[in-house]
């Protein structure tokens, strides 16, 4: 009977670990998508009707946020994912 209990405890621990891993991976993918959106928003700032100083600040902020999100995703997702992703970017 105690073996069954131990097995259940081990299975529950594995399930909790996989849920946490799934959430971390989702966070990484979300950061990667946010990075792409920030990079796409940087040149789109030119179309916004603000002063040129405000557009420069907004464009710079979007580029910096995109880089931070990209490297945050790199840390969260790991080296394997970015090696695979880099293959598509290298021409």
The geometry reads as elongated
Classify the beta-strand content into a percent band: under 5%
Rg (CA only): 21 Å
Number of distinct helices:
3
The domain count comes to 1
Question: What can you tell me about this protein's structure?
Answer:
- The chain is mainly alpha-helical and 91 residues long.
- It has one domain.
- It contains 3 helices and no strands.
- The termini are far apart.
- The mean pLDDT is 80.
Short précis:
88% of the residues lie in helices and 0% in strands. By secondary structure, it is an all-alpha fold.
Which keywords apply here?
about 90% helix
Summarize the topology.
Layout: H1 2-44, H2 52-77, H3 79-89
Helix pairs in contact: 1-2
């Amino acid at each position: 009977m105690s073996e069954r209990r131990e097995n259940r405890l081990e299975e529950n621990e594995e399930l909790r670990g996989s849920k946490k891993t799934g959430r971390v991976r989702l966070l990484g993918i979300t950061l990667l998508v946010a990075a792409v959106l920030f990079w796409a928003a940087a040149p789109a700032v030119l179309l916004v009707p603000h002063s040129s100083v405000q557009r420069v600040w907004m464009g710079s902020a979007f580029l910096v946020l995109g880089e931070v999100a990209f490297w945050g995703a790199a840390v969260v997702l790991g080296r394997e994912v970015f090696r695979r992703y880099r293959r598509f970017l290298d021409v």
